[in-house]
Design the sequence.
């Protein structure tokens, strides 16, 4: 029996490997996952939430370059390496965009950057007041590959760090939906009768409420925040999982291997977890992939409405909200880049879901 199960798994894996878009989507999702975990290691602006603002260089096009005066932070940064790696620097250098500079002794004379043909203010700074400063690296040329947003923040850094919310909300929401959905569906399908009627009533009531409206209600009840959105999205996605699990259990609970397990005296918990669930997980895996995509879209919609991740936290949906009016102002990339990121990740999950459906189909 185990050899047969192993061979079926190997056949499904071989079929999945032959699906180009499924494999491509898998590695794309792995890449986004690595970027999400180590976002601050890849981001040019590794301050917390990539929130270094320079209003003088707001809304600049991709590839924009500027000279930056970099001064050491006023407070010493005592963060651990892992804290910086996963949560960003708390105390970062002071950066001032400049158009020209001149160093005379220990005094630096510079002209602040000003856009639209304006002349920036002329200022000076005494470098002797700063300890541990390298006069050779105090002026740096910075390149903004994706340009800057309306607050002058590095758009590439915000995109990379914003991937963390969109990616992990899929995992948290799907995990919550699987725990609740599999439990409710298993109980309803296996025991039937009044238990099934009561659980189906809960499922139908929850199903009748629009998803976005239910998420908004749960979010308002739990409060605005990072984890509240994750929980709210997860609590609205269990219904579809429960219906699928219930239907699958109803169709297999009268089969011979379940009857044999009952005859051997196994308890209901073992029969459900050890005998029934492993044989009906194929459609659950497929629906989980679709729920990943749905969770990303719901979170993006909540952030667009201002209910999701709160500023200054980076989120793709919030970035679209901040810049959608720039589409008619000649700078559509500020909204299109995060929109393309959402589209790419959602499409990857949908394609991998289709590939898993084909690979796990016993009829093909």
Sequence:
């Amino acid at each position: 029996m185990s050899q047969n199960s192993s061979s079926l798994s190997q056949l499904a894996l071989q079929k999945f490997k032959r699906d180009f878009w499924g494999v491509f989507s898998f590695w794309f999702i792995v890449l986004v996952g690595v970027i999400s975990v180590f976002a601050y290691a890849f981001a040019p602006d590794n301050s917390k939430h990539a929130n270094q603002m320079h209003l003088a260089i707001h809304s600049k096009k991709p590839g924009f370059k500027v000279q930056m005066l970099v001064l050491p932070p006023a407070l010493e940064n005592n963060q651990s390496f892992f804290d910086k790696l996963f949560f960003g620097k708390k105390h970062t250098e002071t950066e001032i965009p400049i158009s020209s500079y001149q160093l005379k002794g220990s005094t630096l004379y510079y002209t602040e950057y000003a856009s639209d043909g304006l002349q920036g203010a002329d200022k000076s700074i005494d470098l002797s007041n700063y300890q541990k400063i390298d006069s050779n690296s105090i002026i740096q040329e910075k390149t903004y590959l994706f340009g800057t947003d309306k607050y002058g923040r590095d758009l590439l850094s915000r995109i990379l760090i914003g991937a963390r919310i969109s990616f992990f909300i899929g995992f948290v929401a799907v995990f919550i939906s699987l725990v609740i959905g599999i439990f409710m569906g298993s109980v309803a399908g296996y025991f039937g009768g009044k238990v099934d009627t009561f659980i189906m009533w809960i499922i139908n009531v929850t199903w009748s409420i629009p998803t976005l409206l239910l998420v908004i209600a749960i979010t308002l009840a739990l409060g605005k925040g990072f984890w509240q959105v994750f929980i709210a999205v997860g609590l609205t996605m269990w219904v579809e999982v429960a219906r699928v699990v219930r239907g699958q259990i109803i169709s297999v609970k009268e089969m011979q291997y379940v009857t044999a397990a009952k005859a051997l005296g196994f308890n209901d918990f073992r029969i459900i977890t050890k005998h029934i669930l492993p044989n009906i997980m194929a459609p659950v895996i497929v629906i989980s992939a679709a729920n990943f995509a749905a969770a990303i879209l719901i979170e993006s919609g909540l952030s667009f409405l201002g209910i999701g991740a709160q500023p200054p936290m980076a989120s793709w949906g919030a970035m679209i909200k901040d810049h959608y009016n720039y589409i008619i102002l000649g700078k559509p990339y500020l909204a299109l880049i995060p929109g393309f990121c959402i589209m790419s990740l959602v499409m990857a999950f949908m394609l991998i879901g289709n590939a898993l459906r084909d690979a796990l189909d016993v009829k093909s």
